[in-house]
Write a structure and sequence with these properties.
single chain; 381 residues; alpha+beta; Pdz3 Domain; four-stranded antiparallel beta sheet; three-stranded antiparallel beta sheet; 21% strand
């Protein structure tokens, strides 16, 4: 990993977290709550940049985001100008302001990307057809390739190799991988013509299919390369809203699969079922990524141009907004949930109790952070 990779990953992440914290800062000031410190990065403190209107602006050594330290951050604090002394409405506003800033940032970035060129990465990704111009198309959209050839199968005997293009079967063109099963099952046990292509060389062979599956002995997959990019003009803000909605749904679905995977890991660990544990690691690892994954993605996206970098930044900003709405202790959503829960049941939320709840949540988040980092190291190195 080089310095450029680290910078490409950390700088956008830090900026987006600072924007999040800026939302808390503005909302706190508007609500009459004093902001004692606005920090870029996490302590230990490296340098005090300035002190203005009672707020110390600091630069800290751990480049993992930023923070805002309010006066009297516990619900039980009652001193004037403290967070604890603010009304419930003001507390809610302060806690959701960071989410709001990240959501607005994502919408602005998606709007810019729609004007520059929106990558189409989701099935049926939102667009206004009357205001859509395709500026990049998917390559090899109608190509079908052999992703696996079973040893000793009819395809193997005919000399088919992995990554060969499958052109036709029994004279029927293969422009969709899903056609393979229908054609081979129709001609099961019969001799048919198989046309394949390797590079610029085309091969024609007669093969006798097996009478039962696997008929040909080839796993077919689409040979598509790259992704479609489309551009909008007047509909860019509408496209941004539509894409934001779709990626929110996809993110929540991915989080659900990650939680399911973590559940399988725990179940496998307690029961000794190694297969369940390995399946859980694969499922959870495929759905989550930490700062290291962000660095790698940002480095790769830089090769695709400014539009794609902004697209990734928009997704990260949206993800920060979504994560901070979840009722996880130590995050904004968790703090709001705990505050509203204790108010609803009229339980006293003491300083000690609040510290235990959010301290435990923070510790679990740090453990999860370490686990995700280990997964990322294994994935990318």
């Amino acid at each position: 990993m080089n310095a450029l990779l680290i910078a490409l990953g950390l700088i956008p992440l830090i900026i987006l977290v600072v924007i999040h914290e800026w939302g808390h800062f503005i909302a706190a000031r508007k609500s009459g709550v004093e902001v004692e410190e606005f920090g870029v990065g996490f302590p230990p403190k490296a340098k005090t940049l300035t002190v203005k209107n009672g707020t110390e602006y600091t630069l800290n050594w751990l480049p993992l985001g930023g923070f805002v330290r309010l006066k009297g951050e516990h619900d039980a604090d009652t001193s004037k100008g403290s967070f604890g002394a603010a009304s419930l409405r003001q507390k809610v506003l302060i806690m959701v302001a960071g989410v709001g800033m990240n959501l607005v940032t994502a919408l602005i970035l998606f709007t810019l990307v729609a004007l520059i060129g929106m990558p189409s990465l989701l099935p049926n990704q939102f667009r206004i057809n009357s205001d859509t111009k395709i500026i990049r198309e998917i390559k090899n959209k109608d190509v079908v390739r052999a992703s696996e050839v079973i040893s000793g199968s009819p395809a193997d005997k005919a000399g088919v190799q992995k990554d060969d293009e499958l052109v036709s079967l029994s004279g029927i063109p293969l422009d969709d991988a899903s056609k393979m099963t229908d054609i081979t099952s129709t001609y099961a046990g019969k001799k048919i013509e198989l046309v394949t292509k390797r590079g610029e060389t085309q091969f024609t062979n007669e093969v006798t299919l097996n009478e039962s599956s696997p008929y040909l002995g080839v796993r077919a997959e689409s040979g598509e390369e790259g992704y479609e990019v489309y551009r909008a003009t007047w509909s860019a803000p509408i496209v941004a809203i539509g894409v934001t909605t779709q990626f929110t749904h996809a993110t929540l679905k991915g989080l659900g699969q990650a939680v399911s995977g973590l559940g399988s890991i725990l179940a496998g660990a307690f029961t000794g079922n190694n297969q369940a544990r390995q399946n859980g690691q694969q499922e959870a690892g495929g759905q989550v990524g930490g700062p290291l994954a962000v660095m790698v993605v940002m480095k790769e996206s830089a090769r695709e141009g400014t539009g794609f970098v902004l697209f990734i930044c928009a997704i990260i900003s949206l993800t920060l907004a979504i994560m901070n709405t979840l009722p996880i202790p130590a995050l904004d959503g968790g703090r709001l949930f705990v505050t509203l829960l204790f108010r609803a049941f009229r339980w006293p939320l003491t300083k000690t109790r609040e510290d235990k709840i959010h301290g435990t949540g923070f510790a679990l988040l740090m453990i999860l952070f370490v686990v995700i980092t280990v997964v990322d190291v294994r994935r990318f190195f």
